Every structure is written in C-alpha cells, then in structure tokens.
Amino acid sequence: MALLLSDLVDRPALHLSVAACPEHLDRPVLAAHASELVRPGSWLQGGELLMTIGLLLPMDVAACRAYVDDVTAGGAHALALGLGPELPYQEAPEPLVTAAREAGLPLLTVGEEVPFIAVTKAVFAAQAAEQRAAVESAFETQRRLTAAAASGQGLTPTLDAWTSATGIRAQVTDPLGRVIAGDPAAPGGESTELIRRVAVGGLRSSAVAPGLEVQPLGARRLRGMLVLAGDPGPDARLLISGLVSLLSLELERRHLADEPERRRRAGLLGRLLDAATTAEQAADLLAGAGLAADAVRGVAVAAPSDDAAREIAADLALAVPGGLTRTRGALVEAVVGEGLDLDAVLAHFAQGCPAGIGSAVPPGAARTSLREAGGLLELSRAAGRPVRARSDRAGALLLDLGDRATLTGYADALLGPLDTADPTGALALTLATWLDTGSSWEETARRLGLHRHTVRNRLDKIAQLTGRRLDDGDARFDLWLAVRARRAARRA
Fold first, then answer.
1. pTM of this prediction?
2. Does residue 251 fall inside a structural domain?
3. Which domain holds residue 14?
C-alpha cells in the first residue's frame, strides 16, 4: 500500500498540519524533497512532497501563484512549509494558502523543531517497508507456485496458483500454439501474432502487446509458450521469471517421461513399414496408435546430427496427433495423416533441414510414401526447402534446380526463330498449348479458339523454323524443355 499524504499527517511526531486542500490528502507520496528555489518545477520527477521555508519566495498573491503553478507543473503532489521562531514564517501566509487552494495543491505546515530530514526519513522508511512487504509477498507466492509445481500433477496446479495470486489469466501452448494447459479461452487480440513470433524466434524471444505477453518455455529447445492475458503489476512482474522456470522444468520432465512411449511408437512405425504387414493390419495398427486416417503421408528429415534427429523426432511426436516417428542415425522418418499442415510443422521443428514429403497413400502403402519422401531429400537440400512429391510438378522442380542462365540460353536458342518470325508470340503460344494437351490438335484449337487447320498450319511453320520434326519424340522433348525453361524463368 502506497504512503498517502493522510498517513504522514496522522503521524504525531512530524507535527504536520493541513493549511489548504484537505480533500486531496489521498495522494501518494513518492519522495520528500527540500528546495528554496522559486522555480523548482524542472528539478522534480513527480509525486513529491516539496518542502520549503519560503526564504526567497515573495509573499504576494501573484508570486505565490507563479510558484504554486510551477510546482504543480513539475508533478509535485503537495507542498510543505516549515514554521518556527527563527524561520521566516510562524504560520502559513495567506497569499500562499490562497494560491495553493486555487491550484488544488495540498499545503501542509511542518511544526517547529521538526527538521525536514525527519519527514524525508519517514517517507523513505514507509517506502522501504512497502518494498519489503512486496518482496515477502513475492517469496510467499513463489513458494506456493513451487509447491504446486512439485505436486506431480502437471502444469495446471502451477497455472491455477499463479492466477489465484495475481488475477492474471494464463495458459501454456505447444510450439504450434495449441493450448495444452491453463485457461482454455483464447486471449484474443494480437495473441496469434505474438505466439507466431515467439515460435519463430525460439527460446531467446518474447513478445508483448497491451494486455498480452508471450514467453518461451524450455531449456535447450522450445517446448511450449506461456501466454499471459492481463496487465501484471510490479509485484506480479517479479514472479514471471520464476513461473517460466517452473513451467519449463515441467515441460522438460514431461519430455523425458515420454521417452518410453516414443520408443514404443517408433516400434509401431517399424511394424507398419514391414513388408509382411498387410493393408488391413496397417490400418488397424494406425487406428490403435490414434491415427484414424484414410490416407497417410511419409515424411523424411535429414537432421545435422544424431542428437538433433532425436530432438526433432520427439518434437514431431508431440506436434503430430497420432503420428509415428523414428530415427535412423541422423535421419528422421514419420508417417502422419494426410490432412496435417506439414509445411507449418516442418517450419517449426525442422527449420533449415532437408525434408521430403511423400504422396498421400492408403495406410497399407505407407512404406511406399516414406521411400518416396526419402528420395526427395537431395532435391530438398538443393532447393533449400521441403519438397513435396507431386508427379505433375516433377519436371518443374528439376527445372527450378537447374542453372537459370543456361536454361534461358537453351530456350532462346531453340525458340528464338519463332520470336523473330512472330513477335506477337502466337506461334510460341500455339506450341506451348499443343505440348500441354499431349500433342492434340483438336484440344489445342479448342483452347485457343482457332480452327484446327490454323493450328496445323502454325505447327508446320514451327517445325520449319525450329528444324524439329514434331512427330519425333526427342524433338518434342527438346521443345517441351525449352517452353518449360521459359516458364520457370518468368516465375523467378
């Protein structure tokens, strides 16, 4: 509880009397400062009880008004005038009382033989007692939080103890922002963006917005995030770091306790990938593991080390509902449901690691999808991003990995005669459409809105200009590669 002016007035030893504005004695006193300057406002920080004996202050209404206005502008909460037989005044002068009353600034008088230092000591002693009480309260709350964390009942008791002590809503999310403990209601506002920033930034990041705060949880890796909804005061602020430590310890303990379950599920993945497992057995195995999906995908991640692979596999095991993971040296393998947003998962847990994503297949064909994912790792390493198996994009992917200048030069050399003969691009467009339709004149004519004879005439001209026979497979491939290379160049 802050020290109020009324608290000081009630202390008999200080001999304080109220000369003006007794209705404002509910103001807190943050400091007590003595000054004989007639313009002391610029030396104040706000909240002070400013003490003076009025040595240099002219006692007329205009001068007192200017003085009180300056003190008020400086943020002082009250003015105290020292009285005594050897001091300039033995009672509060009326001009000063009038100016204080007009400004709404409490004016106190300090009785004779009471030095200003006594008032200063009283203010600082009260502040020290307040701070000591705050620290003792924080220690007591911290003990309650520690006891809750030591109960062995998970995250919830600790979060409940925090909210009970501070009134601040709290929840713990996993690294993907899904609530795993605490207040189930989403805090709203900017929480989604704050969570995303911390998830990307990792253990060394935090994010704050009005009424919201997100702190990372974990020791060596990001295991989750603490979301606080409310405005922690100074007392609660003292406890946040301790709360983060306790929650991080619980998440690390949970991580270690889950190791036997991760090994069991890795064994299930081995059985799923066994060639002797039938499609029916595979579906039953996945359903028993909590992955009741009609289609699954294989995922392969090349970690930088065996230890990193084990951490990534453990993270994926938590992030992927019902998914199965295992490690083979520095290789992480997983089978997950088709509907999972794997791009988001890999961005969180395997950032910068080559990763392949296999095709969606029935559970019985999971090993095929996983083998496909493993085959994409080198392409992912070259592309610098996860690569997803899509048969309709295989050629484009290979073109993306090629040298851009070489591909552009090849395309210009082969298609340049078409550009020269037809600057409008109609010949090049006809060729590209014909190749896209599987060399169908009818479909090309339909797409371009032309007569089929017009298409035939254009294709004959293309063959003459390029020197390629369009009925030859190798020639069509050369033209297809040139057209696709130009498309890739336009996307770049």
1. 0.57
2. yes
3. 5-114
